[in-house]
Amino acid sequence: MLNRKHPHRDGILPVKGYDSVNLPSGLYKRVKELVESRAELGYRSTAEFVTEAVRKRMEEIETLLHAQRQFEEKSQVQRRAKEKGPQVE
Length: 89
Description:
Elements: H1 25-37, H2 46-84
């Protein structure tokens, strides 16, 4: 029976532990055609391609955010040291 609260467009509900997202039709078609026409790329499905693409992009963003945090922390340390002025012993 189709869950009316969260119906999937083709009537198939996502597998437990998975969620779904909507892609623009044109983008989905491009990915599907690529996956189907280029077996040497190693993707078994459009879902596998999209999963890898999202995972890679998340890794890129997380790496950038980590570098940004490190830069901000270093800047704060330098600013505090500058505010303290030279240490006299």
